[in-house]
């Protein structure tokens, strides 16, 4: 599968061959859905937490005697029916949302999304992606010349490049990720995928095991 390669000036300089086993996979929306739902569930963080009667401070002694007062029986001032008492059936941190998906399925879904990006011309391959200084305006000038100009774009690098990471972190519609960490959720969260040519080799080595 031939695909155009651009330089940093946004000019098409040559073509490259995309691996058929990665970028020419038949799409299965149900499988992609399962993987995305599992990734969203695994990233979920629970912040809401209420205390039950065993966790609320105080209430160690019986507020009044069992009989003879004319009032209802009470064993603790931290009962759920008392003000300041514990909460019944409230949200708890112990709840688990984790979903386990086999690696083969996650890998196959990733290839499907990559193939869809290539078929819809939402994949942009550059011969290189380098800047000398970690300046936001430098990376902005480069991205401005690609088809992803003004659109949200995921940049997949073959390895960590501190200059690019520091330069792009102030751009709201740009996210930089290492090729070995590519996943369906991030790919589907961004319209375009931009990557240097070397990234294809890393994807092949990492996921085609």
TrEMBL record:
One of its GO terms (cellular component) is ribonucleoprotein complex. InterPro entries: Ribosomal_uL4, Ribosomal_uL4-like, Ribosomal_uL4_dom_sf. The keyword Nucleotidyltransferase does not apply. One of its GO terms (biological process) is translation. Part of the 50S ribosomal subunit. Belongs to the universal ribosomal protein uL4 family. HAMAP family: Ribosomal_uL4_B. This is Large ribosomal subunit protein uL4. It comes from bacterium (Candidatus Gribaldobacteria) CG10_big_fil_rev_8_21_14_0_10_37_46.
